[in-house]
Design a protein that fits this description.
mainly beta, two-stranded antiparallel sheet, 10 strands, disordered C terminus
Length: 255
């Protein structure tokens, strides 16, 4: 009889607890589903303007030629004209998926200077200086969101000055003997890496090489008469840090 009584009490207890458990489940608070993740894409499209600065080196070689005739006389040696530069750029880019295309114009003041004593005429010191240069280029790049790698190529123009002085160790050392100026056109190639650190601001580094070839120039004495002619060849290498502001929309949200 005790076993039957205990079994009956257990069944009744289970029956009473089941509705309470169901009631407890029904009153649980509602939990809102988490919001979907949102990814942002950096947009490289639009007009931009910026500044740049850095340093460069121009390798120049002088070959003396017959004044007025152009026949080769002898090599006068080479030197590297080095220094700093600062300038600005303006351009436009448009983006298709991860590919970025652009056009850009750049203008810089420069102070790339150097000299060497002439091998052919030891009493003379040949000095060159680049005062300014300009680049007009097209760009093709690939973007990883706010990081852009690009290559560029196009045309370049360089403003050069050439001077001949009396070499050290000779009478009148440092006296100007002859000079010439030249605006030389050539081609340029380069590559850069740019980082978007704010919706419309980017910072980057860039390397450029300018091909200028060779050209024959007549250097004139201070009084105006022709002094000598040289075939002068040169190329320019430089590294720049760039800061750009882009006029356009900010990042694009993608769900």
């Amino acid at each position: 009889m005790k076993k039957i009584l205990f079994a009956t009490i257990g069944i009744v207890a289970l029956g009473l607890s089941a509705p309470a458990s169901a009631a407890d489940l029904a009153t649980r608070p509602y939990t809102k589903a988490p919001a979907p993740m949102v990814a942002t894409i950096y947009d490289w499209s639009g007009f931009y303007i910026g500044i740049n600065g850095g340093g460069g080196s121009s390798h120049k070689c002088w070959d003396n030629v017959v004044l007025g005739g152009g026949a080769f006389v002898g090599g006068e040696g080479c030197h590297n004209a080095t220094g700093g530069t600062v300038g600005g750029q303006v351009g436009y880019r448009w983006q298709s998926a991860n590919w970025v295309f652009g056009l850009e114009g750049q203008g810089n003041w420069a102070d790339f200077s150097g000299d060497n004593v002439s091998v052919l005429f030891p009493a003379q010191r040949n000095r060159t200086k680049i005062d300014a240069f300009g680049l007009i280029t097209g760009q093709v790049g690939y973007a990883w969101n706010n990081v852009l790698f690009y290559v560029k190529g196009g045309g370049a123009v360089v403003a050069d000055k050439y001077n001949i002085y009396t070499a050290p160790g000779f009478a009148g050392a440092g006296t100007l003997l002859a000079s010439a100026k030249d605006n030389r056109w050539g081609g340029t190639v380069g590559a850069g890496l740019e980082f978007g650190f704010a919706p419309n601001w980017t910072v980057g580094v860039e390397y450029d090489h300018i091909f200028l070839g060779g050209r024959t120039l007549t250097l004139n004495a201070p009084g105006g008469g022709a002094f000598q002619s040289d075939h002068i060849s040169q190329n320019v290498d430089m590294g720049l840090v760039r800061l750009n502001y882009r006029f356009g929309g900010p990042v694009i949200a993608r769900y």
